[in-house]
Amino acid sequence: MTIQIDEEVPESDGSLMDIEGRNSKVENLVVENNNVRKSGTTETTVEDVPIQLRRSTRVKHTPTQNDDPRYSVTSYSRQKVSGESEEPQNTVLVMKDPVTYEEAMSRNDAVYWKKACAEELEAFIKQELFSTVLKPVGCKVIGYKWVFKTKLDEDGQVERYKAQLVAQGFSQIPGIDFNETFAPVTHHQMLRILLALANRYCWHIHQMDVKSTFLNGDLENEIFIRILPGVEAKEGQVWLLHKALYGLKQASKEWYLKLKGQLEELGFKRSNADHRVFTKIIDGKLFVIAVYVDDFLLFLSNISHIRTVKEDLKRRFEMKDLGEAKWILQMKIERTDINDGMRKLIISQEQYIETILERHSMADCKPAKIPMAANLQLPMLTEAKIDITEYQRCIGSLIYLMICTRPDIAYSVGVLSCHIACPGRTHMQAVKCIFRYLCGTNHYELEFQANNSNDTSPIVYVDSDWGGDCMDRKSISGFAVLLDGGAVSWGSKK
Questions:
Q1: Per-residue pLDDT reduced to its tens digit, 1-30
Q2: How many helices (H) and strands (E) does the chain have?
Q3: If we measure between CA atoms, which residue out of 97, 120, 139, 115 comes closest to residue 214?
Q4: Least confident range of 128-137, 267-276, 386-395, 425-434
Q5: CA dihedral over 371, 377, 381, 385, signed as positive or negative
Q6: CA distance linking residue 418 with residue 407, whole number of Å
Q7: Distance (Å, whole) CA 12 – CA 61
Q8: Quick one: which of 164, 174, 201 has its CA closest to 341?
């Protein structure tokens, strides 16, 4: 006996109600089929079979309004740390830095930005940065742009407002406007080694900052720049630069050559391991100066010798003495004495982590326990499926954090960096997983403990898989170098 179905049955939407309804239809058909067999009828149709509709037993509620207070309740809010005060703290609300000169002058804090611009122009005159000349025939005149930055201290409070006039160096022509551009900076590995040694040998760590850094470099090429609006000048006149200006291709190189020459006059020698580290022996004690662009770190056990060198540097450059180092390159430095001669030095970046979480709208995310799922295989795409710019911004923020203080995300960041040209939704989800991990571990820090009897020999850990990448069958290796209990160097590479 066959059952002829005249209607086309619609596809199921997969819902529980739809499945139960279709099961009810099948049961009714089976019952009718048995009755047909008993009566001897040869044919029936679906129209002849009565179908009972199933009514939902779900309790109906009135739709919730948008302003319902229940919308503000979420499990993704940050949990209050035990012991944290319920009272509001006295914090300063820092606005985003202005992008244009017009925006800076129209804000509530415009008076501070005006003062910063005035200080920058005063530095130009003091350094004899330029001279006003008639524009030569056929020469290229470079434009400029104001760049504004709010400098914060280790507590996140506003330290000062900084304005810089930056030349549009992208319009310079190689071989005519500049030749070489390379300038070294102190490696973060060397910086951590020096901090660990300073903790071991009770060195003082002092910090200095150079004002208008690149204005100290002397230019070898003729560079012409447009005159600022509001400056009295005749038609056809431009500025001929005598000193390096921010934004020029060769600015960092000229500053490094000037600094190297001045330190050599003071008796310092450049380190072969790191060309931004300079050393000198004073009364049998090692004096170390580490330079990162315009930030100086001075290491020595004798505080009087440090003061002497500071005065020598101030006579050569306009510098600001910041005293004991507490905050450098977005890293917070803390030193404490524990007991029995044991000393501890801590490096952390909690403020930087909170900044990047806020920047990428992950400040209130749900924390994760691991930065990346085990054995996660990411596809290699041939074209981007998401916004490349946002993905690259996220990876750039994570790379700097990984280089400075977080070896625990080195593998995850390394894997995601391979997809920086053609990212997809899966890659972005993995990036957000790292942000969630950082949200729950923003208090992690590098800690160095030492006393006078500890062994200075480093401890090295190395490991590698075997063809762990299923896409190209390449292996991924990782290493970590520890000194006095804290990591000073690490990496994860394919």
A1: 444 444 444 444 444 445 445 555 545 544
A2: 10, 19
A3: 120
A4: 128-137
A5: negative
A6: 18
A7: 27
A8: 201
